[in-house]
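During the reporting period the student researcher (J.K.) took over the structure-prediction task from the postdoctoral fellow and processed the backlog of single-chain submissions. One of the processed entries is reproduced below for the supervisory committee.
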Amino acid sequence: MFAAHQMSAPWALCSSITQEETAREWLTWASAGMEGVVFKQLNDTYRPSVWGWQKYKIRETSEAIVGAVTGSPATPRTLLLGRHDTDGRLQYVGRTTTPARATGNAVAVAGLLAPGRRGHPWTGWSFSAGRHQGDAERHAVEPELVVEVGADVARDTSGRWRQPAR
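J.K. obtained the following structure tokens:
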């Protein structure tokens, strides 16, 4: 257990409540930097390295440009997403979860992708494929397809989504 004087940014002590209505109100505070609400049973104690508490994450709908894929362009496993910066350069902002094959989303997306041409903005870049995927095969695609995704409001220090978008 940490005492308050040992904690520094980005950590903050938070209130606790038992009223669901108040928790729902807190979830409207995304613009104030709140990422979500952690909840647990009243009689549940914190146990290190044990999953038990849950987090309701605040998500936002956003648009991004598909600049590359993991897997193959014919059957993408994840989409690597970007946005243009103020200088017009395509910057990496995050990746997606795996498109649902059962609904045909992976096939539909694959049909809209074209192989990346010479001079692709991400030529020579390397990307983390994410946890549990190892060094997945990556393929640049022409940055023409814009997708709408649901992403957690949580960002890392470079402004990228910390979790995969859906």
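The committee noted the following: The CA atoms of residues 50 and 103 lie 34 Å apart.
J.K. will present the remaining backlog at the next meeting.
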